[in-house]
Write a structure and sequence with these properties.
Elements lengths: L3 H9 L3 H15 L1 E9 L14 E4 L3 H7 L9 H8 L2 E4 L1 H8 L5 H12 L5 E6 L7 E8 L5 H28 L11 H11 L4 H8 L3 H15 L4 H10 L9
Antiparallel strand pairs: 1-2, 1-5, 3-4, 4-5
């Protein structure tokens, strides 16, 4: 059973970095010492959206992530494909079954060979239930070196419910905390004007409220669009809201 103090620590985390560091340490105690978490709110029928908009967290070595993530190898990873079409937890033993049945494509085999070269051979994947078809979050838990998939399955048999619950809590907390991608941080003025737009105010309304000229308000909106890499102010409000950069109380 998960201690209440541990749950409270996760719920009280003030930022994603603090939350992630606690989670990495806790999963290592179970035997899963390398994690990759990913989430997107921009999924379509044939795309996960712009990788620059993903929430990506990992404690894998750069030698691994530079290729698996940086070069897009993840797109062909069998367990990533599984996560996109399923919810819940899945043992990586399904990969062994697919290898034995020769069901892997050449691209999937390349992923598995790369993973094997980096000791990513045993573990579990968790795909979180989505409230929208455009949203998907998942985490890959890699068992520490020296553990077989049978060892990972034994850990899961004993602690799986707690592990899945902790990962779900962390996932929900990540979605609720502010984050930015590739340095796309809004200034206080940009957050404020987008917040007022989200409240239905016009440029003229915002100018009066903030005691600025309409031209200055337009400038802040343009810079906000540029910072978020979107074309319209409506898109900027949506993305800033997704990233929890607006409608926030000052610390």
């Amino acid at each position: 059973m998960i201690p209440t103090s541990e749950l409270n620590a996760l719920l009280d985390a003030s930022g994603i970095e603090e939350l992630w560091n606690m989670h990495v340490k806790r999963m290592a105690e179970f035997g899963f010492d390398r994690l990759i978490y990913g989430a997107t709110r921009y999924r379509t029928g044939n795309s996960l959206g712009d990788p620059d908009d993903f929430v990506l967290l990992t404690n894998h070595e750069p030698e691994y992530t530079d290729v698996f993530i940086g070069e897009g190898l993840y797109f062909h990873a069998p367990m990533v494909k599984w996560a996109l079409h399923n919810d819940g937890a899945c043992s990586w033993s399904v990969l062994r079954d697919r290898v034995n049945s020769e069901m892997l494509s050449s691209q999937e085999r390349r992923v598995m060979e790369f993973n094997a070269a980096h000791g990513v051979t045993a573990g579990y994947s968790i795909s979180f239930t989505s409230v929208s078809p455009r949203t998907k979050g998942a985490i890959a838990l890699t068992a520490r070196r020296g553990l077989s998939q049978d060892d990972a399955d034994a850990i899961w048999a004993e602690h799986g419910e707690d592990i899945q619950a902790l990962n779900t809590i962390v996932h929900l907390r990540i979605l609720a905390l502010p984050y930015t991608t590739r340095g796309r941080t809004l200034t206080a003025r940009q957050r404020e004007v987008l917040g007022w737009v989200g409240d239905g105010k016009t440029v003229q309304d915002i100018a009066l409220i903030m005691e600025l000229t309409p031209a200055t308000v337009e400038k802040h909106l343009r810079l906000a669009r540029d910072a978020l890499c979107v074309e319209t102010t409506a898109q900027a409000v949506l993305k800033a809201a997704f990233q929890n950069q607006i409608f926030l109380l000052d610390p």
